[in-house]
Write a structure and sequence with these properties.
single chain; alpha/beta; Aspartate Aminotransferase, domain 1; Aspartate Aminotransferase, domain 2; seven-stranded mixed β-sheet; three-stranded antiparallel β-sheet; 11 helices; 12 strands; globular
Length: 387
Protein backbone atom coordinates (compact mmCIF):
# COMPACT_ATOMS: atom_id res chain seq x y z
CA UNK A 1 0.00 0.00 0.00
CA UNK A 2 2.80 2.43 0.86
CA UNK A 3 4.37 2.08 -2.59
CA UNK A 4 1.11 1.97 -4.52
CA UNK A 5 0.23 5.00 -6.64
CA UNK A 6 -3.36 6.14 -6.05
CA UNK A 7 -5.20 6.99 -9.28
CA UNK A 8 -8.79 6.71 -8.09
CA UNK A 9 -9.46 10.28 -6.92
CA UNK A 10 -12.75 10.35 -8.83
CA UNK A 11 -14.06 7.60 -6.57
CA UNK A 12 -12.74 9.18 -3.39
CA UNK A 13 -10.09 11.72 -2.49
CA UNK A 14 -7.82 11.39 0.54
CA UNK A 15 -8.84 13.75 3.30
CA UNK A 16 -6.63 16.84 3.41
CA UNK A 17 -4.35 16.69 6.49
CA UNK A 18 -5.53 20.10 7.70
CA UNK A 19 -9.15 19.02 7.29
CA UNK A 20 -8.44 15.84 9.24
CA UNK A 21 -7.06 17.95 12.09
CA UNK A 22 -10.28 19.97 12.08
CA UNK A 23 -12.40 16.79 12.22
CA UNK A 24 -10.34 15.45 15.13
CA UNK A 25 -10.42 18.75 17.02
CA UNK A 26 -14.17 19.20 16.65
CA UNK A 27 -14.78 15.56 17.57
CA UNK A 28 -12.87 16.17 20.77
CA UNK A 29 -14.02 19.65 21.68
CA UNK A 30 -17.53 20.10 20.22
CA UNK A 31 -19.12 16.77 21.08
CA UNK A 32 -22.48 18.14 22.21
CA UNK A 33 -25.57 17.87 20.04
CA UNK A 34 -25.71 21.07 17.95
CA UNK A 35 -29.49 21.07 18.26
CA UNK A 36 -29.22 21.38 22.05
CA UNK A 37 -28.89 25.14 21.93
CA UNK A 38 -30.37 25.58 25.42
CA UNK A 39 -26.95 24.92 26.98
CA UNK A 40 -23.52 26.32 26.25
CA UNK A 41 -21.94 23.14 24.89
CA UNK A 42 -24.78 22.59 22.42
CA UNK A 43 -24.73 26.23 21.39
CA UNK A 44 -20.98 26.00 20.76
CA UNK A 45 -21.47 22.95 18.52
CA UNK A 46 -24.25 24.81 16.73
CA UNK A 47 -21.86 27.69 16.00
CA UNK A 48 -19.43 25.21 14.44
CA UNK A 49 -22.17 24.00 12.10
CA UNK A 50 -23.19 27.51 11.13
CA UNK A 51 -19.58 28.54 10.51
CA UNK A 52 -19.20 25.63 8.10
CA UNK A 53 -22.48 26.54 6.41
CA UNK A 54 -21.11 30.04 5.81
CA UNK A 55 -17.83 28.64 4.43
CA UNK A 56 -19.68 26.55 1.85
CA UNK A 57 -22.04 29.39 0.96
CA UNK A 58 -19.09 31.71 0.41
CA UNK A 59 -17.40 29.19 -1.88
CA UNK A 60 -20.46 28.77 -4.15
CA UNK A 61 -21.73 32.37 -3.76
CA UNK A 62 -25.12 31.82 -2.17
CA UNK A 63 -26.82 32.59 1.12
CA UNK A 64 -25.86 30.44 4.11
CA UNK A 65 -29.56 29.70 4.66
CA UNK A 66 -29.64 28.02 1.23
CA UNK A 67 -27.23 25.25 2.31
CA UNK A 68 -28.66 22.04 3.79
CA UNK A 69 -26.33 19.39 5.23
CA UNK A 70 -26.75 15.75 4.21
CA UNK A 71 -24.82 12.50 4.48
CA UNK A 72 -23.38 12.99 0.99
CA UNK A 73 -24.39 13.76 -2.57
CA UNK A 74 -26.49 10.59 -2.92
CA UNK A 75 -28.80 11.85 -0.18
CA UNK A 76 -28.61 15.40 -1.56
CA UNK A 77 -29.66 14.10 -4.99
CA UNK A 78 -32.58 12.20 -3.45
CA UNK A 79 -33.71 15.24 -1.49
CA UNK A 80 -33.47 17.49 -4.55
CA UNK A 81 -35.32 15.22 -6.96
CA UNK A 82 -37.78 13.32 -4.77
CA UNK A 83 -38.22 16.28 -2.42
CA UNK A 84 -39.12 18.79 -5.14
CA UNK A 85 -41.52 16.56 -7.06
CA UNK A 86 -44.60 16.79 -4.77
CA UNK A 87 -44.83 20.56 -5.25
CA UNK A 88 -44.21 20.24 -8.98
CA UNK A 89 -46.97 17.65 -9.21
CA UNK A 90 -49.42 20.08 -7.60
CA UNK A 91 -48.84 22.50 -10.48
CA UNK A 92 -49.11 19.83 -13.18
CA UNK A 93 -45.41 19.95 -14.02
CA UNK A 94 -44.84 16.19 -13.95
CA UNK A 95 -42.39 15.99 -16.85
CA UNK A 96 -38.76 15.56 -15.76
CA UNK A 97 -35.56 15.54 -17.80
CA UNK A 98 -32.18 14.00 -17.03
CA UNK A 99 -29.40 12.32 -19.03
CA UNK A 100 -28.33 8.73 -19.59
CA UNK A 101 -24.89 9.34 -18.06
CA UNK A 102 -25.91 10.54 -14.60
CA UNK A 103 -24.73 9.00 -11.33
CA UNK A 104 -26.82 5.97 -10.27
CA UNK A 105 -28.34 7.98 -7.41
CA UNK A 106 -29.84 10.34 -9.98
CA UNK A 107 -31.00 7.64 -12.37
CA UNK A 108 -32.63 5.64 -9.56
CA UNK A 109 -34.57 8.70 -8.38
CA UNK A 110 -36.03 9.29 -11.81
CA UNK A 111 -36.87 5.60 -12.16
CA UNK A 112 -38.78 5.94 -8.89
CA UNK A 113 -40.62 9.06 -10.05
CA UNK A 114 -41.56 7.26 -13.27
CA UNK A 115 -43.09 4.46 -11.22
CA UNK A 116 -45.11 7.13 -9.42
CA UNK A 117 -46.52 8.50 -12.67
CA UNK A 118 -43.98 11.09 -13.78
CA UNK A 119 -43.00 11.32 -17.45
CA UNK A 120 -39.21 11.14 -17.66
CA UNK A 121 -37.05 12.05 -20.64
CA UNK A 122 -33.49 10.74 -20.56
CA UNK A 123 -31.22 12.65 -22.92
CA UNK A 124 -28.55 10.80 -24.84
CA UNK A 125 -25.03 12.08 -25.40
CA UNK A 126 -22.72 12.34 -28.39
CA UNK A 127 -19.48 10.37 -28.76
CA UNK A 128 -17.72 12.98 -26.65
CA UNK A 129 -20.10 12.27 -23.78
CA UNK A 130 -21.93 15.61 -23.82
CA UNK A 131 -25.64 16.28 -23.95
CA UNK A 132 -26.87 18.28 -26.94
CA UNK A 133 -28.53 21.55 -25.98
CA UNK A 134 -30.75 21.44 -29.06
CA UNK A 135 -32.18 18.12 -27.85
CA UNK A 136 -32.81 19.57 -24.41
CA UNK A 137 -34.53 22.57 -25.94
CA UNK A 138 -36.71 20.30 -28.10
CA UNK A 139 -38.02 18.23 -25.18
CA UNK A 140 -38.67 21.09 -22.75
CA UNK A 141 -42.38 21.89 -22.57
CA UNK A 142 -44.98 23.60 -20.40
CA UNK A 143 -45.30 20.42 -18.29
CA UNK A 144 -41.56 20.21 -17.54
CA UNK A 145 -40.95 20.72 -13.84
CA UNK A 146 -37.38 19.58 -13.27
CA UNK A 147 -34.15 19.19 -15.25
CA UNK A 148 -31.16 17.45 -13.65
CA UNK A 149 -27.80 17.39 -15.46
CA UNK A 150 -24.47 16.62 -13.76
CA UNK A 151 -21.66 19.18 -13.96
CA UNK A 152 -18.87 16.70 -14.68
CA UNK A 153 -19.02 13.00 -15.38
CA UNK A 154 -17.39 10.81 -12.77
CA UNK A 155 -16.11 8.26 -15.33
CA UNK A 156 -14.87 10.41 -18.21
CA UNK A 157 -14.43 13.80 -16.55
CA UNK A 158 -16.38 15.39 -19.42
CA UNK A 159 -17.98 18.71 -18.48
CA UNK A 160 -21.62 19.32 -19.29
CA UNK A 161 -22.94 22.75 -20.42
CA UNK A 162 -24.86 23.27 -17.20
CA UNK A 163 -25.03 27.07 -17.41
CA UNK A 164 -26.63 26.95 -20.85
CA UNK A 165 -28.89 24.07 -19.79
CA UNK A 166 -29.97 25.98 -16.68
CA UNK A 167 -30.92 29.02 -18.77
CA UNK A 168 -33.01 26.81 -21.07
CA UNK A 169 -34.77 25.23 -18.10
CA UNK A 170 -35.44 28.62 -16.52
CA UNK A 171 -36.92 29.96 -19.75
CA UNK A 172 -39.31 26.97 -19.79
CA UNK A 173 -40.33 27.58 -16.17
CA UNK A 174 -38.59 24.44 -14.88
CA UNK A 175 -36.27 23.96 -11.92
CA UNK A 176 -32.66 23.04 -12.68
CA UNK A 177 -30.58 20.71 -10.48
CA UNK A 178 -26.97 19.68 -10.95
CA UNK A 179 -24.87 17.05 -9.22
CA UNK A 180 -21.71 19.09 -8.72
CA UNK A 181 -19.85 16.47 -6.69
CA UNK A 182 -17.17 15.56 -9.21
CA UNK A 183 -16.46 19.14 -10.28
CA UNK A 184 -16.14 20.77 -6.85
CA UNK A 185 -12.37 20.45 -6.41
CA UNK A 186 -11.49 21.98 -9.78
CA UNK A 187 -14.24 24.37 -10.86
CA UNK A 188 -15.61 27.31 -8.86
CA UNK A 189 -19.38 27.68 -8.93
CA UNK A 190 -21.23 30.99 -8.87
CA UNK A 191 -24.78 30.14 -7.86
CA UNK A 192 -25.76 33.79 -7.78
CA UNK A 193 -24.82 34.25 -11.42
CA UNK A 194 -26.43 31.13 -12.94
CA UNK A 195 -30.07 30.01 -12.74
CA UNK A 196 -29.23 26.78 -10.91
CA UNK A 197 -31.94 26.08 -8.35
CA UNK A 198 -30.36 23.06 -6.63
CA UNK A 199 -26.84 21.63 -6.48
CA UNK A 200 -25.43 18.57 -4.70
CA UNK A 201 -22.00 18.29 -3.08
CA UNK A 202 -20.02 15.55 -1.34
CA UNK A 203 -17.11 15.76 1.09
CA UNK A 204 -15.13 12.75 -0.04
CA UNK A 205 -14.91 14.01 -3.65
CA UNK A 206 -13.31 17.25 -2.47
CA UNK A 207 -10.58 16.27 0.03
CA UNK A 208 -13.09 16.30 2.87
CA UNK A 209 -14.48 13.55 5.10
CA UNK A 210 -16.77 10.75 3.96
CA UNK A 211 -20.36 10.59 5.10
CA UNK A 212 -21.12 14.28 4.77
CA UNK A 213 -22.39 16.46 1.94
CA UNK A 214 -24.67 19.37 1.20
CA UNK A 215 -27.57 20.46 -0.97
CA UNK A 216 -27.96 24.00 -2.18
CA UNK A 217 -31.59 24.91 -2.72
CA UNK A 218 -32.58 28.37 -3.85
CA UNK A 219 -34.84 30.46 -1.63
CA UNK A 220 -34.84 33.26 -4.21
CA UNK A 221 -37.50 33.36 -6.90
CA UNK A 222 -38.40 30.81 -8.03
CA UNK A 223 -38.12 29.47 -4.49
CA UNK A 224 -37.58 25.72 -4.30
CA UNK A 225 -40.10 24.12 -1.96
CA UNK A 226 -38.91 20.73 -0.77
CA UNK A 227 -40.59 17.86 1.05
CA UNK A 228 -38.38 15.76 3.34
CA UNK A 229 -37.40 12.25 2.31
CA UNK A 230 -36.20 11.40 5.84
CA UNK A 231 -38.45 11.92 8.85
CA UNK A 232 -37.54 12.46 12.47
CA UNK A 233 -36.41 15.32 14.65
CA UNK A 234 -36.89 18.23 12.28
CA UNK A 235 -33.25 19.23 11.83
CA UNK A 236 -32.18 21.38 8.87
CA UNK A 237 -35.42 23.35 8.72
CA UNK A 238 -37.38 20.12 8.91
CA UNK A 239 -35.95 18.91 5.61
CA UNK A 240 -33.25 16.52 6.78
CA UNK A 241 -33.90 14.56 9.95
CA UNK A 242 -31.01 13.23 12.00
CA UNK A 243 -28.46 14.54 14.47
CA UNK A 244 -26.02 16.75 12.62
CA UNK A 245 -22.53 15.33 12.05
CA UNK A 246 -20.69 18.25 13.61
CA UNK A 247 -17.09 17.05 12.98
CA UNK A 248 -17.90 16.01 9.41
CA UNK A 249 -19.68 19.28 8.70
CA UNK A 250 -16.74 21.26 10.10
CA UNK A 251 -14.42 19.22 7.89
CA UNK A 252 -16.61 19.83 4.86
CA UNK A 253 -16.56 23.59 5.45
CA UNK A 254 -12.77 23.57 5.87
CA UNK A 255 -12.32 21.46 2.73
CA UNK A 256 -14.38 23.91 0.68
CA UNK A 257 -12.45 26.86 2.10
CA UNK A 258 -9.17 25.19 1.07
CA UNK A 259 -10.49 24.52 -2.44
CA UNK A 260 -11.27 28.21 -2.70
CA UNK A 261 -7.59 28.87 -2.07
CA UNK A 262 -6.10 25.98 -4.07
CA UNK A 263 -8.34 25.13 -7.01
CA UNK A 264 -6.50 27.22 -9.60
CA UNK A 265 -3.06 25.87 -8.69
CA UNK A 266 -4.46 22.33 -8.34
CA UNK A 267 -6.15 22.47 -11.74
CA UNK A 268 -3.02 23.80 -13.44
CA UNK A 269 -0.54 21.37 -11.82
CA UNK A 270 -2.71 18.26 -11.95
CA UNK A 271 -3.91 19.07 -15.45
CA UNK A 272 -0.32 19.29 -16.69
CA UNK A 273 0.44 15.89 -15.14
CA UNK A 274 -2.69 14.39 -16.71
CA UNK A 275 -1.77 15.75 -20.13
CA UNK A 276 1.77 14.41 -19.85
CA UNK A 277 0.47 11.00 -18.77
CA UNK A 278 -1.97 10.94 -21.68
CA UNK A 279 0.72 11.88 -24.22
CA UNK A 280 3.22 9.30 -22.98
CA UNK A 281 0.65 6.51 -22.86
CA UNK A 282 -0.53 7.36 -26.39
CA UNK A 283 3.07 7.34 -27.57
CA UNK A 284 3.73 3.81 -26.26
CA UNK A 285 0.36 2.02 -26.33
CA UNK A 286 -2.32 1.78 -29.00
CA UNK A 287 -5.30 3.22 -27.14
CA UNK A 288 -8.29 5.53 -27.38
CA UNK A 289 -9.02 8.53 -25.16
CA UNK A 290 -12.68 8.87 -24.26
CA UNK A 291 -14.03 12.41 -24.20
CA UNK A 292 -10.78 14.09 -25.17
CA UNK A 293 -12.30 16.45 -27.77
CA UNK A 294 -14.34 18.47 -25.27
CA UNK A 295 -13.57 20.16 -21.94
CA UNK A 296 -12.80 17.69 -19.15
CA UNK A 297 -11.86 17.81 -15.51
CA UNK A 298 -8.09 18.38 -15.36
CA UNK A 299 -7.47 15.24 -13.33
CA UNK A 300 -9.41 12.64 -15.32
CA UNK A 301 -8.29 10.28 -18.07
CA UNK A 302 -10.67 7.68 -19.54
CA UNK A 303 -8.94 5.10 -21.76
CA UNK A 304 -9.84 2.08 -23.85
CA UNK A 305 -7.25 -0.42 -25.08
CA UNK A 306 -8.28 -2.91 -27.75
CA UNK A 307 -8.27 -6.54 -26.56
CA UNK A 308 -7.33 -5.61 -23.00
CA UNK A 309 -9.95 -6.31 -20.35
CA UNK A 310 -9.82 -3.64 -17.61
CA UNK A 311 -10.39 -6.14 -14.80
CA UNK A 312 -7.37 -8.16 -15.95
CA UNK A 313 -5.29 -4.99 -16.09
CA UNK A 314 -6.40 -3.98 -12.61
CA UNK A 315 -5.58 -7.44 -11.24
CA UNK A 316 -2.11 -7.42 -12.76
CA UNK A 317 -1.33 -3.93 -11.41
CA UNK A 318 -3.14 -4.12 -8.08
CA UNK A 319 0.05 -4.00 -5.99
CA UNK A 320 1.38 -0.94 -7.82
CA UNK A 321 -1.58 1.16 -9.00
CA UNK A 322 -5.07 1.91 -7.72
CA UNK A 323 -7.53 2.79 -10.50
CA UNK A 324 -11.05 1.96 -11.60
CA UNK A 325 -12.63 0.08 -14.51
CA UNK A 326 -15.85 2.02 -14.08
CA UNK A 327 -17.61 4.09 -11.44
CA UNK A 328 -16.99 2.86 -7.89
CA UNK A 329 -20.72 2.55 -7.23
CA UNK A 330 -20.88 -0.29 -9.75
CA UNK A 331 -17.82 -2.32 -8.75
CA UNK A 332 -19.82 -5.27 -7.40
CA UNK A 333 -21.03 -5.99 -10.92
CA UNK A 334 -18.77 -6.73 -13.87
CA UNK A 335 -20.81 -4.86 -16.46
CA UNK A 336 -20.12 -2.32 -19.15
CA UNK A 337 -20.39 1.23 -17.85
CA UNK A 338 -23.73 2.87 -18.65
CA UNK A 339 -21.79 6.05 -19.39
CA UNK A 340 -19.53 4.48 -22.01
CA UNK A 341 -22.49 2.59 -23.49
CA UNK A 342 -24.32 5.88 -23.91
CA UNK A 343 -21.27 7.23 -25.76
CA UNK A 344 -20.29 4.22 -27.89
CA UNK A 345 -23.02 1.60 -27.59
CA UNK A 346 -22.26 -2.03 -26.76
CA UNK A 347 -18.83 -1.95 -28.36
CA UNK A 348 -15.33 -3.12 -27.38
CA UNK A 349 -14.38 0.51 -26.77
CA UNK A 350 -17.12 0.79 -24.14
CA UNK A 351 -16.35 -2.61 -22.58
CA UNK A 352 -12.60 -1.97 -22.38
CA UNK A 353 -12.78 1.48 -20.79
CA UNK A 354 -11.06 2.33 -17.53
CA UNK A 355 -10.39 5.53 -15.61
CA UNK A 356 -7.29 7.15 -14.16
CA UNK A 357 -8.03 9.90 -11.65
CA UNK A 358 -5.08 12.02 -10.52
CA UNK A 359 -5.10 14.28 -7.48
CA UNK A 360 -3.15 16.51 -5.12
CA UNK A 361 -0.89 13.68 -4.01
CA UNK A 362 0.12 12.72 -7.58
CA UNK A 363 3.78 13.58 -8.11
CA UNK A 364 5.71 14.41 -11.26
CA UNK A 365 7.97 11.41 -10.73
CA UNK A 366 4.94 9.12 -10.65
CA UNK A 367 4.19 9.62 -14.35
CA UNK A 368 7.13 7.65 -15.74
CA UNK A 369 6.45 4.76 -13.36
CA UNK A 370 2.75 4.71 -14.26
CA UNK A 371 3.55 4.61 -17.98
CA UNK A 372 6.13 1.82 -17.55
CA UNK A 373 3.69 -0.27 -15.51
CA UNK A 374 0.91 0.09 -18.07
CA UNK A 375 3.25 -0.68 -20.98
CA UNK A 376 4.51 -3.88 -19.34
CA UNK A 377 1.08 -5.06 -18.17
CA UNK A 378 -0.58 -4.33 -21.50
CA UNK A 379 2.16 -6.13 -23.42
CA UNK A 380 1.85 -9.21 -21.20
CA UNK A 381 -1.94 -9.35 -21.52
CA UNK A 382 -1.81 -8.96 -25.30
CA UNK A 383 0.85 -11.65 -25.53
CA UNK A 384 -1.26 -14.06 -23.46
CA UNK A 385 -4.24 -13.33 -25.69
CA UNK A 386 -2.25 -14.13 -28.82
CA UNK A 387 -1.04 -17.52 -27.58
Amino acid sequence: MANSIYLDHNASTPIDPAVLETVIRISRDAYANPSSIEHNQGAAAGKVVEAARSQIAEFVNCRASEILFTSGSTEANNLAILGSYPELKKTGRTHCITSLIEHPSILACFDHLEEKGARVTRLGVDENGQILLDELSDVLCSQTGLVSIMAANNETGVLQPISEAAHLAEAAGALFHTDYSQATAYMPLDLNGTPIHMASFSGHKAYGPKGVGALYRSIRKPRVNLHPVLFGGGQEKGLRAGTLNTPGIAGLGHAFALIGEKWNDDARRIGALRDRLQEELQDKISLQINGSDVPRLPNTLSLSIDNVVPQALMQKLRNDLCFSASSACATEHVATSHVLQAMFGKTPRARNAFRLGLGRQTKEQDIAKIVDLFVCATSELLLLRSI
